[in-house]
Amino acid sequence: MDSSTQQIALKAGVQIEAQYKVDEYDILILSASEGRALDKWLHANGYNIPEGAPRVLQSYIRQGMYFFVAKVDLNEQQRLGYTYLRPIQVAYESPKFMLPIRLGMVNAEGSQEMFVFTLTKAGRVESTNYRTVRVPTDVDIPEFVRPEFTSFYRTVFDKRYDREGKSAIFLEYCWNIIPNQPSCDPCTAPYLRPEELRTLGALWITTQGPDAPGSAVLTRLHLRYDKDHFPEDLAFQVTADRENWQARYVLHHPYAGTDECPQLAAYRRTVWDRRKKEAENYCDLTGARLEDVRQRMGVAADWSTTAESATWWERLWGASDRK
Q1: What's the CA gap between 306 and 303, in Å, rounded?
Q2: Residue 57: DSSP 8-state
Q3: What is the b/e burial string over 195-221, where b = at least 16 CB atoms within 10 angstroms of the residue's CB?
């Protein structure tokens, strides 16, 4: 940006504090004295700003905050061979551990979904201006959930979101991450290497020295927000809690063989009791009707399957299709 453009910005009450060209991104760091002036300058320079933004911008100006704005150089993006927007990583120092969200809600239609991942040295992260609630965990659920777990969890989250008044932030995961070691129970993904953790911002992780490599606490928070239930930006704090915790839903697969033993009848009664509890858990988590869940499980009034309630000779001769 040339000096004449800088002068125009100054006259408009906007100060260009810094500017960078990073691959396909043209980046400016701005400060301003008045929200309407900043809004007008951004519109004049080709930035898309929602209607009603000046009031929110003014509140940030009062807090002494700067503004990070970026444009995409499509020619440079094409030259680099990318067909999608690459993420931008920003490092800054501030005593405030917060995340601005109000500007993005000015013209939003309905609620928005956000996942916040943090890496800290001390412990779990939680919100200080909204309730941080743990989603249900360690719950036994019916076997039929397995192929539809994604939609099941969406429903679970929807119900919990409503029960908490649509104004809570939900903890879904918190774990101690040690580089080059499995970091979950069970581990279903490759472990993180020290170089990856440092790239993600955990700069205290070292690759050499007597204390190498160190560890980081990974927290995953999930929120669904709108301007009516989240009138303030998100504020966080780092706690000393390093307990490993995750949302976990348990599927039990009962014995389905034909072998007989003296303990089989007693075992099946425990299975039927457990199935009843699994169905009740499912109803509590999703709002489903118990009778509908029973039908999906394919069980009788006593929570047994047809094969389980058949006699040994019926199983032997394949006559287990009775009702």
Answers
A1: 10
A2: H
A3: eebbeeebeebeeeeeeebbbbbbbbb
Task: Please choose, from the candidates 189, 173, 314, the residue with its C-alpha nearest in 3D space to the C-alpha of residue 246.
Answer: 173
The one-letter amino acid code at 129 reads N
Query: What is 88-102 written as a DSSP string?
Result: -------S--EE--S
Give me the residue label for tokens 């169905």. Answer: 279
Given a contact cutoff of 8 angstroms between Cβ atoms, the answer to whether 226 and 107 are in contact is no
Question: Which tokens in the block code for residue 98?
Answer: 């917060």
Are 94 and 205 a contacting pair, CB within 8 Å? no
pLDDT per residue as tens digits for the range 236-282? 999 999 999 999 999 999 988 777 788 888 999 999 999 999 999 99
With beta carbons less than 8 A apart as the criterion, state whether 169 and 132 touch: yes
Tell me if 179 sits within 8 A of 192, measured CB to CB: yes
Give phi and psi for 268, each to the nearest 5. Answer: -65, -35
The candidate with the shortest Cα–Cα distance to 102, out of 231, 257, 258, is 231
Residue ranges of the domains in the chain?
A: 1-93, 252-316
Determine the Cα–Cα distance for residues 56 and 47; give it in Å rounded to an integer: 16
pLDDT tens-place string over residues 66-116: 999 999 999 999 999 999 999 998 888 888 999 999 998 998 889 999 999
Region for residue 48 given its phi and psi (left: phi exceeds 0; alpha: psi -120 to 50; beta: otherwise): beta
